[in-house]
Fold this protein.
Amino acid sequence: MSRRNGTDEPPRSAGHRYLDTLQGLLDRLEGETWPAIDAAASLVTDALATGHDLHAFGSGHSHMLAEELFYRAGGLVRVRPILFEGLMLHASAPLSTALERLPGLAAALHDDHPMQAGDVLLIASNSGGNAVTVELARLARAEGVGVIAITSLHHATSTESRTPGTPRLHEVADVVIDNGGVVGDASVAVAGLASRVAPTSTVLGAAIVNTLVAEVAERLVARGVVPDVFTSGNVAGGDAANGRLLRAAIR
């Protein structure tokens, strides 16, 4: 039995402990992480207000954050995701892992996905150590693109990381948003099980990118710039409205 609120209660189950962990990490975003979110929102607001684009990238499960930003109900239209199927997991998870560690792949992705000075690139990588993310960040910054990293500083700076001593994403980005996750991402210990379960990076990452969307939209409107925002296709008029936005966005 554990003592909570002055009464004896059963121990919290693994699922409840996971939700407790998430709540603590979400609260952290409003506290110590907020200055980084504020800086990232300013970077994106400046870009969109001057006609530039927000690009988004991640490999493995982190690619879902680029998709979360793209063509999303309530999401900004001027988002250009870098979605390379080889870095996703559905075709071959082992191949995805091998490719994200492959030096030189970022240059090919960069050539295939033009960016220009004044744009912003958001890169999600929990470990921050794979070659494709670090190299892409460097290539983008070299041409005047602002780089925002979403990563776990606990993992990236840990001696337990896979390749300690190599450059990390947080060392080459302009703004670093720390998701607060533990080394290895899995957050919940279960008695009798050697491995932890229940990662936090995707939930926190989605919260971070949508926090940025909300902040950027409000800041743009305050500047007199009304951003294009997608509507749900499942409400009346949504398909037509989104179709007009997509046609206008294609250049």
